[in-house]
Design goal:
heterodimer, A: 258 residues, alpha/beta, Methyltransferase, Methionine Synthase (B12-binding Domains), Chain A, domain 1, Rossmann fold, 2 domains, five-stranded parallel β-sheet, 12 helices, 5 strands, B: 453 residues, seven-stranded parallel β-sheet, 11 strands
Chain lengths: 258, 453
């Protein structure tokens, strides 16, 4: 092998992830923003650590102390998840941490529902699907986890979803947003059909699309399309809609990067 | 190990060259561009449109190769789902493509071959159905395409993916090991025994598989240096574990060239001595990676992964990318002819060796070591996958003690993974039983009967 021992890497590469790394560890960063309430703190911490059993234990303690189970969803579970999503957005923690925390949060929400007569209120409903003919769903699974982590009710239609099934779910659930993911160029064509049928039925609802071969130029070809380059864009698009930006052109202006 | 040492490996030369198609001998002292493409979305509307699209693609590539004076080319058609679900569609495309290639071969003498990569259609909307009704259609697609003109048969099979998708998003190393190393290998043995038999029957070449569904998923989720979706130290672990899984195809009768997106192919070449296709800097049309030069180091065929067919300033996309590939091959072949191949190999490798832990482990000398770890327990699908993972951890740790820079996050992910591996049993039956129980309960879409359990 050529001798590279004395050679410098400076003109060959830079590992920017090392150069830009934050000084604080994820645990230290989380500790700084956990809620201080002594009943809420252990629940939020258990969410961050992705420990389902500890989440349930913390919720039980809080319920025994008189806290309302449904209120705990917003006051404890979503607060803990807020720590997680904030640190993810800031680049301090990675996606698997978010997924494990989301699993723990969903278990917690189920536990709260089981211990209450009333139903929780969410930020809004999002219908998610993988394009008809396409069975690649890991991207959609990430999108649904991130949406749930951000407080949205998700109607997950799964993969290889017929266009009419998307329409039926929109009619039944009154979503603020529809998402579509696809890996392959040949299946993403179904997005246009979803778009056309939504318009035909009078739904002017943003339709966020992304994944594999999907690109901004393609999504921009149909009236309701908003391109999401990253799965993490989905909750941001939903947040923008909840905050009042429902116009497709305005959403494109905000989220189209190219 | 097919090679006595890592240094023996170079591009364009394999221990067991493969004759295929119209005058090609792959891995016999020269590298060959392998062009891959995808039809435009609207082309899937009917069989006629699809066949016409592939005719245009094939003609464009062959014409450009001749116009710029390149001596050899391989075309790879990765099936869109309609072509595998309806084997007659795939066969008709293969026939149309091969007819055009034969015309160019007859007129200009250009050596060429056609690879068809059948889609892994063995699933329904809710579950993988690896041994269900679609298995016979899947095999029929191979046979029909082989009879109609395809020379090289491949697939990107999906065994284990349902568990892997769950595990990789949860930093679950045992789950990744089970999904790729065990479930993937079990499925590979079944399908590649059948594909090799079809190849033998039809006089074609069973060329090999790639762990695209799992190791590439990890690589893509890992993304670039600033992406925060998966530590690159875990992405390379998935890759190392994928090598013993993809190796199963060759143990079951495949001859190579292994398929382009198998970045694990360098490890498999070290073990089998069979020719391999790779992709890197010329597959940026399809995806980014962090080892675009390095991965060219020991390729026999050089691919662009895939590009959608449409116009560019320099011609259609397939013309532009085939020309880029062929120029790279011309450079490698010049190095071979002037006996400078090891210098070029090392320059390619060193330019990316320290760019990322993924590149570091796939550098040919380290890849060779992963290969040695695999063959140590070559008859045990669990242990050889575990050995590959442990070797990968050790190699990255050694690299980090030198010029390979790791972020604190990557270092911690590596340490956690190593601890997880160290805690695993050495007994395959115990591991398989424990995992079966765990993932049956945690992964709703995991059907044990897919693997004969």
């Amino acid at each position: 092998m050529l001798d590279f021992t004395e050679a410098s890497l400076k003109k060959v590469l830079t590992r920017y992830n090392v150069a830009m790394e934050k000084a604080m560890t994820p645990e230290e960063a989380a500790e700084e923003i956990y809620p201080k309430d002594e009943l809420i703190y252990p629940i939020a911490k258990a969410i961050f650590e992705g420990e389902e059993d500890d989440v349930i234990e913390g919720l039980q303690v809080a319920i025994d102390a008189g806290r309302d189970p449904i209120a705990l969803i917003d006051d404890a579970l979503m607060v803990g998840m807020g720590v997680v999503t904030r640190l993810y957005d800031e680049g301090i923690i990675f996606l698997p941490n978010v997924m494990m925390s989301a699993d723990a949060m969903l278990d917690g929400i189920e536990f709260c529902k089981e211990n209450s007569e009333t139903a929780p209120v969410t930020k809004g409903t999002v219908v998610c699907h993988v394009a008809e003919g396409d069975v690649h769903d890991i991207g959609k699974n990430i999108v649904t986890a991130l949406l749930r982590a951000n407080g949205y009710n998700v109607v997950d239609l799964g993969r290889d979803v017929p266009v009419d099934e998307v329409l039926a779910a929109v009619a039944a659930n009154n979503p603020i947003l529809v998402t579509g993911t696809a890996l392959m160029t040949t299946t993403m064509y179904a997005f246009k059909e979803v778009n056309d049928k939504l318009l035909e039925k009078g739904y002017k609802i943003p339709f966020a699309c992304g994944g594999g071969a999907v690109n901004q130029d393609f999504v921009s070809q149909y009236a309701l399309g908003v391109y999401g380059e990253e799965a993490a864009d989905a909750p941001k698009i939903a947040d923008a809609i909840v905050a009042g930006t429902t116009d497709i052109a305005a959403l494109r202006d905000k989220f189209h990067k190219h | 190990m097919a090679y006595a040492s890592a240094d023996e490996m170079t591009f364009g030369v394999s221990k067991y060259p493969v004759k295929a198609g119209l005058g090609l001998e792959i891995g016999a002292g020269y590298t060959i561009p392998e062009v891959n493409y995808a039809p435009r979305p609207e082309a899937g509307a009917s069989k006629e449109k699809l066949v016409r699209e592939y005719e245009r693609i094939t003609t464009d590539i062959m014409a450009r190769m001749v116009q710029v004076g390149f001596p050899a080319v391989i075309l790879e058609t990765e099936h869109v789902q309609q072509m595998s679900n309806n084997p007659s569609w795939g066969a008709e495309v293969a026939h149309a493509q091969k007819t055009i290639m034969e015309e160019y071969h007859d007129e200009y003498g250009i050596k060429c071959a056609l690879r068809h990569t059948i889609g892994d259609i063995r699933e329904n909307r809710d579950f993988l159905q690896l041994r269900g009704d679609k298995y016979s259609v899947f095999l029929e697609a191979f046979e029909e395409c082989a009879k109609a003109g395809a020379d090289l048969l491949s697939v990107e099979s999906m065994g284990g993916k349902e568990v892997f998708d769950y595990a990789v998003l949860r930093n679950d190393i045992a789950g990744m090991l089970y999904a790729i190393g065990c479930l993937g290998s079990i499925d590979m043995e079944m399908i590649w025994s059948d594909i090799a038999a079809i190849a033998q029957k039809t006089g074609t070449v069973a060329a090999g598989d790639t762990d695209c569904a799992q190791a590439n998923t990890a690589m893509f989720i890992g993304g670039g240096l600033l992406d925060k979706n998966l530590a690159h130290t875990l992405a390379i672990l998935a890759r190392a574990i994928s090598a013993p899984r993809s190796l199963v195809a060759y143990e079951a009768g495949a001859k190579g060239p292994g398929k382009d997106c198998g970045y694990e192919n360098i490890i498999i070449k070290a073990i089998t001595g069979m020719p391999m296709t790779q992709e890197g800097k010329t597959s940026t049309c399809a995806h980014s990676d962090v080892m675009g030069n390095l991965i060219m180091q020991c390729c026999d065929c050089w691919s662009n992964e895939s590009v959608e067919y449409h116009g560019e300033f320099g011609g259609t996309t397939v013309q532009c990318w085939s020309e880029s590939l062929a120029y790279d091959c011309a450079l490698m072949n010049t190095a071979l002819e002037t006996k400078n191949e090891k210098v070029l190999r090392d320059l390619l490798m060193l330019s990316d060796r320290y760019r990322d832990p993924q590149a570091y482990v796939l550098a040919y000398d380290n890849a060779y070591r992963v290969g040695e770890a695999i063959v140590k327990d070559g008859d045990n699908i669990y242990l050889r996958a575990k050995n590959a993972a442990i070797a990968c951890c050790d190699i990255v740790s050694e690299g980090a003690a030198g010029k390979l820079e790791l972020s604190r996050f990557e270092t911690k992910a590596l340490a956690d993974a190593k601890a997880s591996l160290d805690s695993l049993t050495d007994d395959m039956d115990t591991f398989m039983d424990d995992c079966l129980t765990k993932y049956k309960s945690e992964v709703k879409v995991f059907l044990p009967e897919n693997y004969g359990f």
